[in-house]
């Protein structure tokens, strides 16, 4: 037995021509705004990701600049430390003293003993300078440093 398809209801030609185009337009019209909306959202997301990436790259460039600045400061600090260490050597001190016209006193060795006054300091009752100061270059018994040789805080000098 052979089955046949049911017959289609075909409207008359006058009504069919008018019904088909309106149905086709009804289907395509809702898709277009939706597709445009999706494309717009994708483009907006892409632009915002590009802006975010640009901002993050700017921050990384700034971090690299700061890191390089820190490295330069660290190198300068090490260089200054090295220069200070060289200035503490006996050779440099002797050369600097010779530039200032100072000579070693080989006849009178200056031995410093804790608890005893340093040789060359004024004794009690000895005359003092015009302004009431001890002679230049001599340290007092009370822990004062000579004029022009003030201690720098935190250096131990």
Kindly summarize this structure in a few lines:
This protein has helices at 13-87, 90-99.
Describe the structure.
The chain has 157 residues and is mainly alpha-helical. 54% of the residues lie in helices and 0% in strands. It contains two helices and no strands. The protein has helices spanning 13-87, 90-99. It is rod-shaped, with a radius of gyration of 48 Å.
How do the helices and strands line up, and which of them pair or pack?
Elements: H1 13-87, H2 90-99
Secondary-structure content class: mainly alpha
How far is the N terminus from the C terminus? Answer: 120 Å
> H/E order of the elements?
HH
- What overall form do the CA principal axes indicate? rod-shaped
Provide the low-confidence segments as ranges.
130-141
SS element count, helices? 2
Q: Beta-strand level of the residues, as a percent range?
A: under 5%
Q: Round the mean pLDDT to the nearest integer and report it.
A: 76
- Biggest beta sheet attributes: none
Number of strands: 0
Using only C-alpha atoms, the radius of gyration works out to 48 Å
Helix content: 40-55%
């Amino acid at each position: 037995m052979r089955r046949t398809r049911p017959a289609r209801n075909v409207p008359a030609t006058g009504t069919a021509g008018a019904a088909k185009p309106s149905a086709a337009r009804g289907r395509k019209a809702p898709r277009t705004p939706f597709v445009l909306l999706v494309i717009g959202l994708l483009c907006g997301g892409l632009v915002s990701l590009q802006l975010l990436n640009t901002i993050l790259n700017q921050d990384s460039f700034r971090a690299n600049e700061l890191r390089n600045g820190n490295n330069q400061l660290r190198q300068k600090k090490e260089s200054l430390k090295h220069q200070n260490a060289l200035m503490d050597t006996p050779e440099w001190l002797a050369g600097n003293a010779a530039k200032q016209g100072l000579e070693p006193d080989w006849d009178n060795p200056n031995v410093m003993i804790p608890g005893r006054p340093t040789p060359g300091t004024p004794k009690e009752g000895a005359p003092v300078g015009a302004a009431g100061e001890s002679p230049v270059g001599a340290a007092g018994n009370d822990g004062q440093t000579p004029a022009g040789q003030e201690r720098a805080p935190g250096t131990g000098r």
